[in-house]
Write a structure and sequence with these properties.
This protein has helices at about 10-15, 30-40, 70-75, 80, 130-135, 150-155, 165-170, 215-220, 255-265, 275-290, 305-315, 340-350, 370-385, 415-420, 420-430, 440-445, 460-465, 470-475; strands at about 20-25, 50-55, 60-65, 85-95, 110, 115-120, 180-185, 185-190, 200-205, 210, 225-230, 235-240, 240-245, 270, 275, 295-300, 325, 350, 360-365, 390-395, 430-435. By secondary structure, the protein is α+β, with helices and mostly antiparallel strands. The protein binds adenosine monophosphate. Adenosine monophosphate (AMP) binds near residues 300, 333, 365, 366 and 373.
Length: about 500
Amino acid sequence: MRFPAPPLPYDPVSDHLREECGVFAVHGADQSALLIALGLHALQHRGQESCGIVTHDGSRVYAERHLGLVGEHFADGETHHRLPGAVGIGHVRYSTQGATVIRNVQPLYADVRGGGIAVAHNGNLTNSRILRDELVASGAIFQSTSDTEVILQIAARSERASASNRFLSALKQIEGAFALVALVNGKLIGARDPYGIRPLVLGDLDGAAILASETCALDVIGAKYVRDIEPGEAIIVDETGTVSERFAPVRAARPCAFEYIYFARPDSMIAGISVYEARKEMGRQLFRDAPADVDVVIPVPDSGVPAALGYAQAAGVPYEMGIIRGHYVGRTFIQPTQAKRDLGVRRKHSANPPVIKGKRVLLVDDSIVRGTTSRKIVDMMRDAGATEVHFRSACPPIKFPDFYGIDMPSRDELMASLQNCDEMARALKADSLGFLSVDGLYQAVLGAARNADTPQLADHYFTGEYTTRLADHERAASDKDRQLSLLVDA
Ligand code: AMP
């Protein structure tokens, strides 16, 4: 089943905390905080604004939450002294909203009847506003503006006897995308949304259970990959072992296409598929969809590299590092104003003229969102002496926003939502512009064309067909008296 795009105008920026995040958890390993710090470090690409770890040592819960990078706060080798225990969960977060305040930093935790719950969440709930309004109407006091707190509030009100059952019953009420790790009275719980939009894997380190957003975080601590958590599955780990429970019907996973295109680290495997191989294949498919007669293929580093390699191999054209990336610049994409984004791109990328001068150049990037990066880089190629500049996007035109935890601007900022391919090419001043087709994307990731009988991806960015209903948006227009949010630091 697929759900239609919400009508324009809808600006998810103005009334949602949009988060890209990573989660990591350990059960049954001494000095779990050291492992969590390492795991979070490997997931740093999923969120750079804040990080936090909560552990449990059998009698007490310990927590540290910070704004900033994992390396700034958890790299001193002392973390396990401050956060003792063999069980723990961690989180990295990247929100584009002004509310980057400590009260929104995860893991969130609360005391409920029967024990304490700490929770860390990657994804976005699509009915959290409705649930929040109901909870506020019945007297709930929210401490954060994060949708994750809704889960704690529902668990606190549940009639079920144990804290872990309360937490599990909350999972039945939330909709959208979530990969959750939770610490409930020393038990570790991991859960993945009913469609498996966001990734979550189970690993094993000498008998200790590990949960992580991506397999690259298992690799960094030397843990073995066991399996992906199933869509709609929760696993509960305690001293007696691991139990699996379903909180939603069995369904085939519909993983987010953008994990494969851009978000996940290329050395990760999602649903058993290598992200690197999928990206390289996107490049090969891109050549089939949008060939060009050129002298050299140049990746926009780093995210365009595997696709450019695939394109160059399929085209039989040399591949060169024609753009050099400065590594000490933050992500250009998250700068709040266009002027700052423009400046950011120039600081981040510079041309390597010897491989460009006098050549017909084809640039490959993973995606065009607002067009900021591509516009600058096309100019840069001409300034460096390219005779022609062709641009290729290794994903289809992005026309629709995301509501499942990938930072994507509203429709009136998405270049492909406003312009057709020719208009975009003119705006970018490119000699030609081409995109991977949706079928090419399916071929690259799943090895099969997109049709009703094949596995599906969450591909709403390109199709406008959403994997879940978007309950908050259906109600957004009439929503005048919801709780105002205090943007205070605390
Ligand atoms: P833009 O410059 O606005 O067209 O954005 C495209 C560039 O941003 C590409 O180089 C992508 O690698 C990168 N990008 C795409 N999606 C995201 C995202 N959700 N968060 C951060 N960067 C992104």
